[in-house]
Specification:
Mean pLDDT: 83
Order of helices and strands: EEEEEEEEEEEEEEEEEEEEEEEEEEE
Strand content: over 45%
Structural class: mainly beta
Distance between the termini: 42 Å
Low-confidence stretches: 1-11, 15-25, 62-67
């Protein structure tokens, strides 16, 4: 066992006695490794003997059994590392975490894993459990704003001369994460003016709430989407759905979840032929996919896909593909490339007899700031 010293409570000194394996003419040598840990550091020791110092990010969603789970640990020297819980000899956190147990209880306190035992220490005392009872662990937020992360994208294009054109696009993504749920918010808008006339004007907003049923499965009681696109002859379209979802992949570099479920759609068209109605309603089937990949330290790739299957008079099958690549410039500022492909199987003919194209393609360049 390590000898633990805490001088002035400012740091922690770990002394590891390495097994005597080295031999020489003078005899057997025993080596000692001394590691100094600051009081605000988290640290872990692997069963193989290595020690990592940094910050515990949280558990990674693998299987329901904690022994087949991993944790994500931000090492001061090695960066983000995924470590299997079964490979951990000792894990000690300095800050407060929210720990969800397999029996449904949620605990708050500093976390320690030692010899396959989970200890959670709070002002009320220390509670111990078998480590396999831990379903998830996340850093406890002291303020509501600490539970949120968001990014804001702004792109613009100006052209003067033979063609006078101006284009402005914006996108906001926000996520609130807790040990038992997730809230996702998104807005995307684009306005283009060419030769003094608008040639594009569309807005989309999404909101969803997820409840984690276990480390892979989640229930989405509500997803609401609202959109408007004058040049697709859509005054407004509102979708509401309930879905069941599954995390296909979750690692420190990759996250991919899919969800599917029934819903209902209300559409008001901008203009229609004289014999047709502007308002249409339809039950729908909704499928969603969200994929995030940290390609490298400075490059991120994202892809989101939404399928909405309504009756033909309400547009039929609609696909929305959104691709994004972010290149880090400095700290939280990225240069971003975004591509969108929207497809509508049965667009509505307007009062002038013009039927919008089935496909819309958009390519944007701009800057993204991460909050």
């Amino acid at each position: 066992m390590p000898a633990l010293l805490a001088p002035m409570f400012a740091s922690l000194t770990l002394v590891w006695h390495v097994p005597a394996w080295a031999q020489s003419e003078e005899g057997t040598h025993t080596y000692t490794q001394v590691i100094v840990i600051n009081e605000n550091d988290d640290w872990l020791k692997l069963k193989s003997g290595e020690v990592l110092i940094g910050e515990l990010i949280g558990t990674v969603k693998e299987d329901h059994n904690s022994y087949e789970q991993s944790i994500e640990f931000d090492s001061d020297d090695l960066g983000d590392q995924e470590v299997d819980i079964e490979d951990i000899s000792v894990l000690q956190t300095s800050g407060t975490y929210v720990i969800k147990l397999a029996n449904g209880d949620t605990l708050y306190g500093t976390l320690r894993i030692d010899n396959d035992k989970l200890s959670v220490t709070s002002p009320e005392g220390t509670q111990q459990f078998p480590v396999e009872m831990m379903v998830s662990a996340l850093t406890r937020a002291n303020k509501e704003i600490d539970r949120w992360e968001a990014d804001f994208f702004l792109g613009a294009n100006l052209s003067k001369g033979n063609t006078n054109e101006a284009s402005l696009s914006a996108e906001v993504n926000a996520k609130r994460q807790s040990v038992s749920s997730r809230t996702l918010l998104k807005y995307k808008g684009n306005v283009t003016q060419s030769g003094g006339e608008k040639t594009a004007q569309n807005h989309t907003a999404d909101a969803s709430y997820d409840i984690y049923l276990n480390n892979r499965l989640f229930f989405r009681p509500a997803k609401i989407s609202a959109s408007s696109d004058k040049f697709q002859n859509i005054d407004y379209r509102i979708n509401a759905s309930t879905q069941i979802g599954y995390f296909v992949l979750v690692t420190p570099e990759l996250e991919w979840d899919v969800s599917v479920g029934p819903g209902y759609q209300i559409t008001r068209y901008d203009t229609v032929l004289e014999s047709e109605s502007r308002d249409e309603e339809s039950p729908i089937l909704v499928f969603s996919s969200n994929f995030e990949w940290e390609v490298s330290k400075d490059v991120d790739f994202t892809h989101s896909y939404d399928l909405n299957w309504a009756n033909n008079i309400s547009g039929g099958i609609r696909h929305s593909n959104n691709f994004g690549v972010d290149f880090e410039i400095i700290n939280d500022l990225d240069f971003s490339v975004k591509f969108t492909w929207d497809h509508v199987a049965s667009p509505k003919t307007d009062s002038s007899g013009v039927t919008p194209d089935n496909n819309d393609y958009k390519l944007h360049f701009g800057l993204t700031y991460d909050f």
